Amino acid sequence: MLFRFSLFVLTQLAGVLLGWWLAQAPGAFAGLAAGSLLWFGIDLWRGLKVARWLRTAEPGQELAMRGLWGEVADRARRALRAREQEATENGRRLQDFLAAIQASPNGVVLLDAQGRIEWCNQTAAAQLGIDAQRDMLQLIGNLVRDPGFAAYYAGKDDRRDIVVTGRDSTPSRPVRISVQLHPYGDGRQLLLTRDVTAVEQAEAMRRDFVANVSHEIRTPLTVLTGFVETMQNLQLPRDEQARYLELMAQQSHRMQTLVSDLLTLSRLEGSPPPAAGEWTPIAALLAHSEQEARALGAVLGKEQELRFAPAPEGELAGSQSELLSALSNLVGNAVRYTPAGGAIDVAWQPLPDGRAVFTVRDTGPGIAPEHIPRLTERFYRVDRSRSRETGGTGLGLAIVKHVAQRHGAELKIESKPGAGSRFSIVFPAARVRSAVKPVAAPAARPATGSPAGSVRAG
Ligand code: ADP
Questions:
Q1: d(CA 322, CA 285)
Q2: pLDDT tens, 41-91?
Q3: Which CATH architecture has domain 105-195?
Q4: Which of 326, 329, 385, 430 has the fewest CB atoms inside 10 Å of its own CB, making it the most exposed?
Q5: Would you list the domain boundaries of the chain?
Q6: Model confidence pTM above 0.90
Q7: Ligand 1 atom 2 nearest Cα
Q8: Is 115 left (phi over 0), alpha (psi -120 to 50) or beta?
Q9: Each residue of 124-147: pLDDT tens digit?
Q10: Atom 8 (ligand 1): residue with closest C-alpha?
Q11: What residue's CA is closest to ligand 1, atom 4?
């Protein structure tokens, strides 16, 4: 300020002195006016220079100027730089924010007050069939043609979501998308989408499971209740009483087996995979399942040829009880489904690559190809009455599949109606400690014919 005032006074003083020297008093007045004009002219020129610099200067282009205008330029430059930095920072933050929404597994669509798409992430675009570039500013109602969505959008009921069919849905692979509107700002709406296919499937499976368990338990319970009531109300002869009690014992045993299989399944589903440090001799596993199979054959009163190949020396890593349950289930099924006079072959074979395969072959009725992929589903049976007659729960192969998965193994089912079945579990090399030289040949064929249908369920 002092510099500016000094310059003003000096210009006028120079004008007065020059005027006085040239024309005494009148010259001094003219010199004062000329000095003032000159000062205002210079000041205006400096001001214009600053204004032009503010208008046209490139970022980083400096303006060397002192005094008031220099300070104005300096402050303006600093204010501009701060604003530029703020804008860059805001832009970066916006990009981070959009990238985070892009990375979200859920879909996000921003709609303006008219329902036009302002922005959407890739997930929403894929789920609703929107083109994130081309469909900008298009009305959402014109793009999502699901009638349920149209009614929901028209109703503007944002307290609940609706589930629509996903863009990539096919009859064999349905995709279900939950959509919910959330109002924000002045009339704008946030549309959130979420893939609920797995949730819906899990819910349907849970419902089916509860219905199946209830049905399985209700049948023996009804029979039991009937017998109890009969025995309470009628004076039965002793031999008939004994027969009724025998039937009642059978039904309670059936319920017991079912509950025990259910508990096994829930343990398998809810516990961490078995450690690889526990080794069980393969011979012990085979001996145990042979014992069980022979006992089952005796209970069922079937004359079958049950051949167990000599057990090799070697060990298998995993949970002994789970492995026993899986092997016994497979051998047990062969005993139960193979008619009297049939043959069952059980073998353990090390493979050249270090893996080992446990195989059960039977000459039973075999299984049609359409059933094979579903055999490991809980309660899935090909022949319901035959399964029940032989004490089946419909959970055996589900247990085998879980045990196999938990041990990194693979369950293979090969069968053909009338040509027997072959069930095998292929254990990974990491879980097998073999003392026998592996054979080069692949696992043997089923006992009769060659099965056509096969599935891997491991
Ligand atoms: P279940 O207790 O009914 O035997 P599983 O889960 O063990 O239940 O088996 C599912 C279905 O697979 C059985 O109901 C049966 O129809 C079929 N199955 C299993 N093993 C054999 C086999 N060795 N031969 C023919 N069918 C079989």
A1: 11
A2: 988 998 898 888 888 877 777 778 878 888 888 888 888 889 989 999 999
A3: 2-Layer Sandwich (3.30)
A4: 385
A5: 2-98, 105-195, 203-265, 273-457
A6: no
A7: 392
A8: left
A9: 999 999 998 899 999 999 998 888
A10: 394
A11: 392
